[in-house]
Structure of Unconventional myosin-Ib:
Amino acid sequence: MEVKTSLLDNMIGVGDMVLLEPLSEDSFLENLRKRFDHNEIYTYIGSVVISMNPYRSLPIYTPEKVEEYRNRNFYELSPHIYALADEAYRSLRDQDKDQCILITGESGAGKTEASKLVMSYVAAVCGKGQEVNKVKEQLLQSNPVLEAFGNAKTVRNDNSSRFGKYMDIEFDFKGDPLGGVISNYLLEKSRVVKQPRGERNFHVFYQLLSGASDDMLKKLKLNRDFSKYNYLSLDSAVVNGLDDAASFRTVKNAMQIVGFMEDEVQSVLELVAAVLKLGNIEFKPESRCNGADESRVKDKNDLKEMCELLGIEQTVLERAFSYRTVEAKSEKVSTTLNVAQAYYARDALAKNLYSRLFSWLVTRINESIKAQTKTRHKVMGVLDIYGFEIFEDNSFEQFIINYCNEKLQQIFIELTLREEQEEYVREGIEWTNIEYFNNAIICDLIENNQNGIMAMLDEECLRPGTVTDETFLDKLNTICAEHQHFESRLSKNSKFLNDHSLPHSCFRIQHYAGKVLYCVEGFVDKNNDLLYRDLSQAMFKANHSLMKQLFPDGNPAKVNLKRPPTAGFQFKASVGTLMKNLQTKNPNYIRCIKPNDKKAAHIFTESLVCHQVRYLGLMENVRVRRAGYAFRQVYGPCLERYKMLCKRTWPHWRGPAREGVEVLMADLQVPTEEFSYGRSKIFIRNPRTLFFLEERRRQCLQDLATLIQKIYRGWKCRTHFLLLKKSQIVVAAWYRRYTQQKKYQKIKSATTVVQSYTRGWQARKLLRELKHQKRCEEAATTIAAYWHGAQARRELRRLKEEARRKHAVAVIWACWQGLKVRREYRKFFRANAGKKIYNFTIQRIMQKYFLGLRKTLPSMSPIDKSWPARPYRFLDAAHTELRTIFHLWRCKKYRSQFTEEKKAVYEEKLEASELFKDKKSLYPSSVSQPFKGDYLEISKNPKYHKLNSCVEEKVLLADVVNKINRANGKGASRILLLTKKNVLLADQKTGQVKASVALPDLASVSVSTQNDGFFALKLREGSASAVKGDFLLSSEHLIETITKLHHIGSTASDDGVRLNIDITDEFLVQFKQDKVCVKFIQGAPKNGNGASCKRKNNRLLEVSVPATA
């Protein structure tokens, strides 16, 4: 990125008009056009900045630009508004000089934006801190508020300031802002009741109707339709690029930042609504019995709504619109108002109400942003005021605006000449008088206390009798006719009698910026600016919070019969105060110019720009600056810039900078009359001399660049050659290594192939031998098997034959014995046959029953409830008893398989069943889940080594739970450890023990009946663990956790009392000093999660549990 060290580097056109050669109006305009076409919108005239409105956003106001211009010399970089702002801020901070920045130009030239840029730059470069940032934010946010109430869309500008603003920003000794004071000048209040074609009323009316909510509009009794209000012009109600709704939100936010209370904002909006309602009040004529005309309100609905907004009785305001009371000493005269006078009174009230509201806003903002400390402050003033105005129809407003610009031009010339003279004296340069046009004669024509135009206008307004605009013009023609800058068709000066460009009802003043034709119509009324006392007193009676502050003159106890000061007198006094204020400060000027009337980018209308250049007096400014020396520069930077032009100063000058500059100028043979040596600067008289130095410097820089390129290219070639040589060595070494590696790989591969073939041959040979040996062994085994089989079969046949013989003997013997018995007992057979047959039958049935039962026995599982059916009814008791005996036997067999650990688990399962079965909805889902106990493997996991070392006893349960915060119902992860004596809660991340509760200190545990994991550990009152209160926790293994707590807590209790488990959907938890109710309700799951806890109030935590299907 190119670094600039002077505005002379890479100039587009001429950056400082003082250096323009030749100097003429055409060359001046051509230079502005050239720079504008290249997006260079800023140009200097010495220390004055000319700003062209680009009508588009340019990337020249970024934070990087702010840093670029921060603490840099004014002429060090390209012209920019930041350079002027930085110069003013550093002079204020470092030299303790109060500053003022005067921003002038016609409407649409960018004055408001320029003032914003200055303030934003100062805010960016000054100190930081909470209090400082608050002050800066309030100062910056005052702009949107004032723009909403004081700016409007005109034919020349969509955001035209219709008031003059001067802001004093106060700084402490470090340069940090402390506060500010805003002064406003001449709000164009006539715009409230009437706007020219193509223009709008003040922004706030449209912003309120577009951006306010329906409820707010209902409270203000307004309708969103613009066409419902007479004071709002419809042809330009909507402006492209302006979002009134968004602007309204911005204004409300800005008012809050500045410090407006909610009721104050509401009061202001009520007054704005009242102004709109006031415009809809219409009158109708009505004749009285004495023939006098009076007025009456046509439709009283708008009047009623307005009175409701202001808190005023409808009859009081209605009478004030129909009658006027005139007081003279002790007499009061009441006269009726005709329709025209009623409309005048209505509009006068609307203008005064809005104007006083605007003044109250400025005062209220000043109260918020004023400096709190009473020590002396450094001050930077920013003046954003109307530019010189020349319209087709120029009236009283243009007259006093142009008077203000005459005063500003007068002080501009005086301060510029004074600054030049002070610098010449400071540097020891001989001062020569400069001829220039002194517009004091024009200022005297307007403001002279005896024969000035404003004095005569006030005299005409105050004199008794018939007073009209024509009588005022006649007085001007009589007194000012001989003045060289005053022209009138009816004056005594005969040269204007046939001037048809000068109408009879007008007069013309030759201002410093050109001739302006003023029409006297409305001068007297606008200068009087009268509001009938009846309306003031009616407004004072209103119950609205602001009305007594806005209309103190309506207080009946403080009736002042003296005529109030005229508008011209007030403006003249405020301008005088402003001029005195500006003369105590060091001035900095920004002259704003608009390039075209179309508000379009890239268009430069030469005639329009030429007109503005003339009435801003820019050519006069250049001539004043060039009357002595056109350019001056400190010796150090001058020597640094041009030292390459002399061999004695290049590349380094060892002596003082002034001596180096003297050697340089002598070597260049510059004529001595073209420059002078000051104490710290060199002064160059003619721009041609400066351009000669710049041309020589450019040529020298080209030669130096060629030399640098030659040396660089030689170094680059040598470096490249050495790099190639080094690379060739490296490449050769790597290639030799590569070829040797390839050769070795080939030899290694060949060796591997030979080895593989040899090993294969040996393996195949060994395989053949093993196969032959195996076949021999298998053959011998087969022969032996066949032989042994034959021997076994032969022996089997022998044994079978022997068995058959023995069986035959047994059968024969049995038959013989049976025969003997039958013969012996035949005589007893008939007596005992039935009993024996019965017993025999029963024995056979029992035998068959037991044998069948043996085959159909159920499984050995204790939970298998199946049992074979009994075959005979007489076996019912025996069948049942056998079933019981079998079940007890298989249970004993099942229990004999249990280890001690497994037995303990089943005991816990049994205990969980006793505690939660049919009481807790979560219990059925936990039956199939084994109780693991140590879910974190705390003894094995190195993450919990520190925590494990803190626990001396065996850990029976280790799990992650959520500790519920009573403040918001949110959970924090904790590790729950259960030992035989304590319950511990530790931080999951650090492993640090947060709480330890002895089991005897546990009074009870509370859970809900629903499908959630929440439980509360309630501590005994007065115990050491109860200091911080109970614990509300949530666990995914609730059933196991409570069961183990119940089992171990009952064992650890000194008195043998079992731990109480409360199962209810609403219970109390003691948090330190407060008891909080925890209530469980059923609700829909949120974000796919389970139960969620939410704080309802200080005494209630509500747990929403999803309903089970």
